[in-house]
Amino acid sequence: MQYNSSQLKAIEHGDGPALVLAGPGSGKTAVITGRTVRLIQNGISPSSILVVTFTRAAAAEMKERFLKMTGRSASPVTFGTFHGIFYGILKNTYRISGSNILADARALQLLREILDHTCPDTQEADLPSSVAREISQVKGSRMDISHFYSGVLPTDAFRKVFRAYENWKRDNRMLDFDDIITRCYELLTTRHDILSLWQQKFRYILVDEFQDISPLQYEIIRLLALPENNLFIVGDDDQSIYRFRGANPDLMLNFPKVYPGCQVIALEENYRSTPEILKASENLICHNRKRFRKNILSSRPSGSPVSFECFDNPRKECVRMAQQIREAHDGGVPYEETAVLFRTNVGCRQAVEQLMAYQIPFRMGDVIPCVFDHWIAKDVMAYMDLGAMSRERRGKRSDFLRVYNRPNRYFSREAFYDPLVTYESLYSYYEDKDWMVRRVDELETNLTMIRHLAPYGALNYIRREIGYEGYLRDYAMQRNIPPEDLLQVLDELTESARNYRTCEEWKESIEKYREKLEQQRALRSEEHSGVVVSTLHASKGMEYDTVYILDVNEGIIPYHKAVLDADLEEERRMLYVGMTRARKDLYIYSVRERYDKKIAPSRFLREIEAGLTDTARQQT
Question: Is residue 329 within 8 Å of 299, Cβ to Cβ?
């Protein structure tokens, strides 16, 4: 295989620590496998080499490349993930097996059960995942639970959930994936005899995607590398976007200080993107202060300028995107070589609808939840269904129970005693309480009003006149979560109803959308063609001929939660990752208005365009 001078320098590195700065498309996997082969050629025992990364897919790819390069059918080199390697160390010492490992799905189910008991009024379907991430942060940083303040639950509630979760695992002799790391660290720091055995086993350690490493993972790798410190780390600090999982780019930035005299090698030749895309990407990322300075050059010929377009609203933005994708496909660009990227999965609904309208096949880069399955959507639909009920008809008890105290009307659950409820039964239940009779009358008036409105008007009536938006704000405050997260879902629902005359038409479109997403979920594990629809996070490691990044606006990119400098730098890195997925064409879109509110273009746009002599800008 032909290597450039920087790659060859990394591959030929001898003993001792080395830091390889591998920018997007610089051939880092080739360097890791090439160095592994070279170590063996230089007389190093293959069984003493450890190559570790974060995903099974990445480990399998490097192992496959190694076998192909060496002509072997089996690998004496250990290729594995952090969790896989650490589990192997624990298994070798303790009597544990796969039956002792708590799978992610079961852990989330357990957390849901604990939350139902501890916080019975919680509605968020993704709350177990959010709590799991915070538990992971506590354990990954080895923090005392009394010093941690949750961002998704009231502090006391989070601590109760944390203790109940840990107690259940202890009583049932189970370990989750975080425990594998913490227990391995505890083992190696208390049993020096066992540590010494593994140090003798793994004399050369190569780490891929080092920018994503957590402090505890780093400490274990450092222990294993002693005393020779043959630690070869490869990564890109500019692509560190997993701080919410415990990743800390400072670990990579400080590596030369921790290992004085370590060799630092920069892979600065990019084999993926055109010079125009690289220049725009560099214009953005150079505004981050905490990073290694690099001089990345493209090996590709010059191409089209990066295209910047601003639209009146998201619908026009998504229509334009779909039109361009169709035109490019008609011109010979395969759909599977195009990606549409978003900051969060909530924002993709309109893009998916337009891809469907233009009959453009698509596939999900990650599992994108259906906004219409959110608990807020279920509340809204309950209101709509009850609004369709005439005075003589009966409404479902389940619908009433969803919304009877959202906002709080001081109704008792016992007032809805029949499977089918009438207004007369409510009046009868409260006949001796005049103030409650007035509340029943107000509810009937509100629901009757909904029946006479188109879906868009009904949504606005529910959120403002009935007071559902105020209920969400109060709910967010009680649960210690940003109200914007809930209001964005409500905004998406309201926007989706805008162009329908009747509730039946709106529901029909919702079912078509839901069916399409279900098809995509079923096909995710299969190889198939289509435009990739993905979040910026999930796009990391991928590459496409054409990339569209939508909604590059303040509050979205950068996200509204990004307040501190460290947050903004990670948001900048996230956009950088998205931009550098593109090989030939990059489209960066923004809008002037969202949910009937003015919205400013992202500050990042000014940074990107500064110094670009040839840019394509359109006002649409």
Answer: no
Q: How many Å apart are CA 420 and CA 560, to the nearest integer?
A: 43
> Residue 390 is encoded by which pair of tokens?
């005439």
Q: Token pair for residue 295?
A: 């001089």
Burial class of residue 188 (count of CB atoms within 10 Å of its CB; 0-12, 13-18, 19+): buried
Closest CA to 581 of 333, 291, 365, 332: 365
Could you tell me the pTM of the whole model?
A: 0.88
Say whether the peptide bond before residue 227 is cis (omega within 30 degrees of 0). Answer: yes
CB 400 within 8 A of CB 394: no
What's residue 344's pLDDT?
A: 86
Task: Report, as an integer, the average pLDDT of 567-593.
Answer: 96
What does DSSP say about strands 395-396 and 269-270: parallel, antiparallel, or unpaired? unpaired
Distance CA 14, CA 39 (A): 8
Structure tokens at 187: 């083992």
Bridge partner residues of 101 (DSSP) = 175
Length in residues, the chain: 620
Amino acid symbol at 85: I
Q: Which helix (H) or strand (E) holds 589?
A: strand 582-591
For residue 329, what are its two tokens? 């496909």
Give ∠ CA 497-499-503 in degrees, rounded to 5: 50
Q: Are 12 and 41 in contact (CB under 8 A)?
A: no
Residues forming a β-bridge with 338: 546
Quote the CA–CA distance of 17 and 231 in Å, as a whole number. Answer: 5
